[in-house]
Amino acid sequence: MLASALAAARPLGGAAVLLDPPPGVAAAPESLAAALAYAPPRIRSGAAADQGRRSQMEDASIACDDVAAAAASCGCVPRPCSKAAAADGAAAAAATAAGAGAAAAAGGAACAACRAGAPAWLHDAAELPACAGFYAVFDGHCGASAAQFAAARALGRVVHSLHFPREPAAALTDAFLSIEAEYEAVVSRGAAAAAGTTALAALVWGGRVVLANAGDSRAVLSRRGKAIELTTDHKPADPVERSRIESAGGYVCEDGLLCGELAVSRALGDYHLAALKRAGSRAGTGPLTAEPEITDYRLAGPDDEFIILGCDGVWDVFPSQRAVEFARQRLRLHNDPARCAEELVAEALRMHSSDNLTVVVICLGEDPPQPRVYSGSAFSGGASRRTSLDGSRRCSASDSMATPGPSPGCRPAASPCRTPSPLTLDGSLSEAAARGDEAAGRRAGASAGAAGVGAPQALPTPAAPRPPQRQRQHEAAR
């Protein structure tokens, strides 16, 4: 991974591993065999966005289900290819030994993919897992130029990193910092308006999900309907972020703003805010840094159903668990991630979100989420109950066959849950109870008369209750 020592500064229930590389630690390559212990059979995705109530749209997103296919058509300049270098060496040797004709033949054997501008790792199919997808959301502020700039370059910078594909976490960090440096150069030349953007990128890498986050966008995983937050919102008031900001010479205002300017503590760009950027910001020395926080999450199995990437406009109105429940219900109905993303955006608008809205839904498999099954209940003796789409619980048919009466786990619809007392507050029989006793007496008398015992007799009228002792003493004193 990116570092030899893993620092879990922000534990996520033991499910995720956060990587925080110490300065100067060399990256160590890791075998991909462990990552391929479990991998989803297929990944599918869909994205949706809406301007909302803002005057302009400042968000951008990426949804790529096949990294290899996208990288093959990428126009970025790749790193040197070992096969091309070997072919060029063979061409030079042939030119020395046999003349120009043999040199041309050897040069023609050079790698066609590398000549076309594709990254070198495409030569070896074993470098890539069967499922490799790249997804990102960018939430711009002070304009859309930074978000659009980052979205146009993110995938290319990842696949052409020297660390890719053996170290995807380091490749994501390289991509963030490379885009930061390139945008600084563009702004300094006046070729683009100064702006900033948060960035959240997710690389589904076989049985792993590697995320890089700089800002307050969020990634949430659904594990059998339970929401697991894979990233941390980078707010200035966060204790970890506040400590980093203060150590870099910045401060956090009482209203939670970074140096009185921004509501986020990590972002790309923002070079128009001189107080937040310093020389050497590539190393993360300024109060506002573009260095991402890395999360390396290993999928637990088919129970990990889908991932939601969303900008803060979604999470302002959607708690993580509510978003997972909503998306899960929609996917069970139509199993379409693109349609699910659109419905999440529409629901956030209905809940009066005031920001731009961008959502990417990543399904980790072909099938829709399965209904949750509850079994082994101690009260029903092993009877199973199933939760339906509308949230109601139904007992299985085997429960009613186990015993002649109703199962303890299934309450009959007409059975009362409590029997009211026949006595009133003063200790006398209630009127309803008296009527019931009188009717019972008539029925008993009628049955006795039919048997020749005698005519039915009326029940005696209950005596009036005696007043309390203190009241009797008071009346006697008078």
Task: Describe the secondary-structure layout.
Blueprint lengths: L15 E4 L24 E7 L8 E6 L2 H6 L9 H17 L1 H9 L3 H4 L16 E10 L3 H15 L8 H21 L7 E10 L2 E7 L3 E6 L2 E4 L9 H9 L20 E2 L23 E6 L5 E7 L1 H4 L4 H15 L2 H14 L6 E7 L9 E2 L10 E3 L5 E3 L1 H6 L28 H20 L18 H9 L1
Number of strands: 15
Query: Uncertain spans, ≥5 residues at pLDDT below 50?
Result: 1-36, 75-85, 98-115, 279-283, 377-427
* Strand residue percentage: 15-25%
**How many domains, in number, for the residues?**
2
CATH architecture field of the largest domain = 4-Layer Sandwich
N/C terminus separation: 97 Å
Helix content: 25-40%
Mean pLDDT equals 72
Estimated structural class: alpha+beta
The CATH superfamily title of the largest domain: PPM-type phosphatase domain
The gross shape turns out to be globular
Largest sheet: 7 strands, antiparallel
CATH uppermost class of the largest domain:
Alpha Beta
Region (Disordered): 374-478
Biased composition (Low complexity): 375-386, 442-461
Domain PPM-type phosphatase: 112-364
Protein name: Phosphatase 2C-like
